[in-house]
């Protein structure tokens, strides 16, 4: 890795696997029944089980925050702990927070709507309104951890997590920050779930106690929604080396397009000057839907050939706009890792592959 | 540091599109400001269902946008698309244009078109025609709309950092240009008036019942506005190579966070001062070289005091007080669009050699560091100007623009 290369040196997550520091365990997870809102029969998703944040991060106060804010606070704290980063001795005006999210604090946005309906528009809940803003999670991370550098919340729909990695790396490479806390997350709510259902996007495994067909399988019939938040600490290879930090992966390059037909050229571009033999892992965005999986299979075959191993983590995490970061961590967790090889992370929209990022495995 | 692919140059603004309460077009914005017109009046375009119609800056007649099959345009989306179309046209043709991306800031996005009934029975809401409308909820939707309407193939995504969003979108797009990640980028912000935000700011008791008075000791709060501003950004070299008209040069920017409170600013304005200092360092300009600051200036009790503190820190060493005004006194607080609209206003002032005053500012907060602009527009050359934005969650952003022909070497590659 070259000295300026942005590297991942700490990982934390709140996912269907629970709140975790570091890599994810290898275990089979099935969707769970939704109980948070009234449903017309069984409805299932890959859900984050309720937990007490202060039992994971001692002293953390999260009352009246959106669950996404809570999860981001927990994930960021775990990632910083995993990176053994002592913020007390860092120049925290040189630490950035970058959050990628598809829907932001939609849970409290729904709550504020409900308070408008219940109390009248002139007397809605003044607490939930500012907490419903999309940048609340990143703001709380900054406030609680005393981080005063650039604080960015972005939404790039299905590739929000991928775009957060790209933008955080840009801040590091341009010298606008020395360290970046990269966050990506979304909470599943009733309005979202019923939207997916109304748009006929869901697998039958959402409605029956049957395993969801695997992504890329011939009998796939739609996706199962998921939720969660992931955080990684990023810093330059030089900086990581100086403080003796372990390196999970180094970010090499990343590209995003709005052209759903450009997947093959995008994927090859992410490969850069590396050869196909360098690829040790492809983390796919396949989610069980007919179109995306088919297009992605073609992109992988045409861009990279049949050789590299492919993993489709949405089989265990579900679909969620911002799960590119968690999929990357899942890929690093669940695959045989070889040094000096590349991991390719693909991001998909409903009609095709629209993001490709490459990582050097440390 | 790996600077592979970075052109290391300056970022040119070659197109500006605006939809504001003054009307459709960058020209309408400039002339409205020059005339000193306040757009703040009681809301008429919908019923906010508050105790009385709030004072707002609304756009009464919004031009139509041609339909695209399968793509619902919320009011926020329409504002963004109209502004982007004007910016693209003003920028002139470029063979690289379709490879551009768009970063459009918003806080409201599709909430302008969604009502609370969506939460009581979502499935019914969707069955009754709300499915496409609800799809406009994500903050990426205005950028996606801009991309779809202009046929852009580059990345199109949204920024949502409360009221600092618009300035941050411009800074991030400029970063991509500097890094060589895109030949051209569209960047700006768009937000429409919505019952959601009117109810929210009303619940926080942050609204002034009458027209707002930023920085006045008798200020009583803010007024919401609506609008969009979108810039076409490219490197100066790229602009010159295609003989594009360079309207202004973005010399530098700064971003920071107060790390203080979700809704209240740091009382000493430390985060805001830090982002101004960072922007000046990146731009390679000294505080004495900034001719004007278009402030955040909301008219709320806490913001304006903290902001004054920030100017005293960032500009206290100047030989003369820094000229400051808040143009929210004309068009209200346009939330996610504010930073982009105010950047357009700063450039309008630079190009017309005009410093726009704050309206209704008769008894300003005491400060020896600030030259409060009041009364009539001040006519004087303005080669370098700064805009300042701040938002809930403590995020701050500052942008520094320079008129073309005045630019010195260096600048952004000094980061």
Sum this structure up briefly.
Chain A is about 30% helix and about 20% strand. With about 350 residues, chain A is α/β, with parallel strands linked by helices. In chain A, strands 1, 2, 5, 6, 7, 8, 9, 10, 11, 12 and 13 form an eleven-stranded mixed beta sheet that branches. In chain A, strands 3-4 form a two-stranded antiparallel ribbon.
Structure write-up:
The complex is a heterodimer of chains A (362) and B (415). By secondary structure, chain A is α/β, with parallel strands linked by helices. Chain A has 12 helices and 13 strands. In chain A, the strands form 2 sheets. In chain A, strands 1, 2, 5, 6, 7, 8, 9, 10, 11, 12 and 13 form an 11-stranded mixed beta sheet that branches. A two-stranded antiparallel sheet of chain A has the order 3-4. In chain A, a hairpin with a 2-residue loop joins strand 12 and strand 13. In chain A, helix 9 crosses helix 10. By secondary structure, chain B is of the alpha/beta class. Chain B is 31% helix and 20% strand. Chain B has helices spanning 26-34, 75-91, 117-120, 122-134, 141-150, 165-179, 195-203, 236-241, 270-283, 301-315, 328-331, 338-351; strands at residues 11-20, 23-24, 41-42, 55-57, 101-105, 156-159, 184-191, 224-225, 227-235, 248-257, 293-294, 322-325, 354-355, 370-372, 378-379, 384-390, 395-402. In chain B, strands 1, 2, 5, 6, 7, 9, 10, 11, 12, 14, 16 and 17 form a 12-stranded mixed beta sheet that branches. A 3-stranded mixed beta sheet of chain B has the order 3-4-8. In chain B, strand 16 (384-390) and strand 17 (395-402) form a beta hairpin. Mean pLDDT of chain B is 94; it is low at 1-7 and 409-415. At the A-B interface, helix 3, helix 4, helix 5, strand 6 and helix 6 of A face helix 3, helix 4, strand 6, helix 6 and helix 7 of B. Strand 6 of chain A pairs antiparallel with strand 6 of chain B.
């Amino acid at each position: 890795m070259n000295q300026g290369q942005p590297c991942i040196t700490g990982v934390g997550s709140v996912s269907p696997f629970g709140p975790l520091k570091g890599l994810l365990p290898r275990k089979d997870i099935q969707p769970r029944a939704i109980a948070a809102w009234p449903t017309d029969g069984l409805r299932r998703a890959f859900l984050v089980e309720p937990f007490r944040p202060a039992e994971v991060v001692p002293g953390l106060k999260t009352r009246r925050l959106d669950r996404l804010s809570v999860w981001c606070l927990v994930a960021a704290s775990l990632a910083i702990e995993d990176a053994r980063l002592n913020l007390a001795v860092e120049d925290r005006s040189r630490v950035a927070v970058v959050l990628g999210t598809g829907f932001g604090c939609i849970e409290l946005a729904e709550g504020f709507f409900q308070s408008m309906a219940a109390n009248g528009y002139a007397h809605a809940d003044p607490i939930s309104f500012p907490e419903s803003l999309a940048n609340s999670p990143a703001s709380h991370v900054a406030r609680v951890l005393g981080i005063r550098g650039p604080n960015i919340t972005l939404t790039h729909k299905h590739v929000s997590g991928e775009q957060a990695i790209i933008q955080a790396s840009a801040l590091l490479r341009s010298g606008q920050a020395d360290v970046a806390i990269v966050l990506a997350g979304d909470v599943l709510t009733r309005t979202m779930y019923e939207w997916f259902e109304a748009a006929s996007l869901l697998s039958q495994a959402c409605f029956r106690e049957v395993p969801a067909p695997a992504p890329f399988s011939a009998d796939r019939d739609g996706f199962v929604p998921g939720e969660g938040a992931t955080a990684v600490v990023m810093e330059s290879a030089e900086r990581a080396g100086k403080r003796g930090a372990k390196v999970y992966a180094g970010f090499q390059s990343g590209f995003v397009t709005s052209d759903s037909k450009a997947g093959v050229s995008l994927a090859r571009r992410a490969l850069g000057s590396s050869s196909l033999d360098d690829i040790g892992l492809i983390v796919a965005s396949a989610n069980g839907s007919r179109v995306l999986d088919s297009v992605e299979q073609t992109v992988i075959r045409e861009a990279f050939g049949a050789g590299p191993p492919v993993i489709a983590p949405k089989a265990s995490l579900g679909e969620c706009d911002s799960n590119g970061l968690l999929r990357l961590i899942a890929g690093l967790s669940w695959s045989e890792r070889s040094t000096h090889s590349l991991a390719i992370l693909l991001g998909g929209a409903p009609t095709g592959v629209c993001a490709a990022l490459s990582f050097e495995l440390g | 540091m790996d600077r592979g692919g970075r052109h290391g140059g300056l970022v040119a603004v070659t197109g500006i599109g605006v939809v504001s309460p003054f009307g459709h077009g960058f020209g309408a914005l400039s002339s409205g400001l020059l005339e000193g017109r306040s757009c703040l009046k009681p809301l008429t375009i919908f019923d906010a269902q508050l105790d009385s119609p709030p004072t707002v800056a609304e756009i009464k007649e919004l031009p139509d946008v041609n339909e695209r099959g399968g793509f619902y345009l919320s009011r926020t989306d329409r504002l963004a698309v109209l502004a982007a179309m004007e910016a693209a046209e003003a920028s002139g043709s470029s063979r690289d244009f379709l490879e551009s991306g768009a970063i459009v800031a918003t806080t409201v996005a599709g909430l302008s078109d969604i009502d609370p009934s969506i939460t009581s029975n979502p499935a019914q809401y969707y069955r009754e025609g709300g499915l496409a409308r609800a799809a406009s909820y994500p903050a990426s939707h205005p950028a996606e709309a801009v991309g779809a309407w202009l046929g852009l193939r580059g990345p199109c995504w949204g920024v949502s950092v409360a009221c600092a969003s618009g300035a941050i979108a411009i800074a991030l797009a400029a970063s991509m240009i500097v890094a060589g990640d895109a030949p051209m980028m569209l960047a700006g912000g768009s937000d429409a008036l919505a019952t959601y935000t009117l109810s929210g700011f009303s619940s926080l008791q942050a609204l002034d019942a009458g027209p707002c008075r930023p920085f006045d000791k008798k200020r009583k709060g803010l007024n919401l506005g609506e609008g969009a501003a979108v810039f076409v950004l490219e490197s100066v070299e790229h602009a010159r190579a295609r003989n594009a008209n360079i309207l202004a040069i973005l010399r530098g920017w700064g971003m920071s966070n107060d790390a203080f409170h979700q809704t209240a600013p740091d009382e000493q304005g430390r985060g805001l001062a830090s982002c101004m200092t960072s922007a000046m360092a990146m731009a390679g300009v000294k505080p004495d070289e900034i001719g004007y600051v278009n402030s955040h200036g909301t008219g709320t009790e806490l913001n304006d005091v903290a902001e004054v503190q920030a100017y005293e820190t960032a500009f206290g060493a100047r030989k003369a007080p820094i000229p400051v005004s808040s143009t929210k006194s004309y068009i209200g607080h346009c939330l996610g669009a504010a930073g982009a609209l105010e950047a357009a206003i700063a450039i309008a002032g630079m190009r017309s050699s005009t410093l726009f005053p704050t309206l209704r500012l008769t008894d300003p907060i005491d400060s020896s560091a600030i030259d409060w602009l009041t009364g009539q527009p001040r006519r004087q050359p303005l080669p370098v100007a700064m805009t300042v934005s701040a938002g809930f969650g403590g995020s701050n952003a500052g942008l520094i623009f320079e008129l073309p022909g005045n630019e010195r070497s260096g600048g952004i590659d000094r980061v």
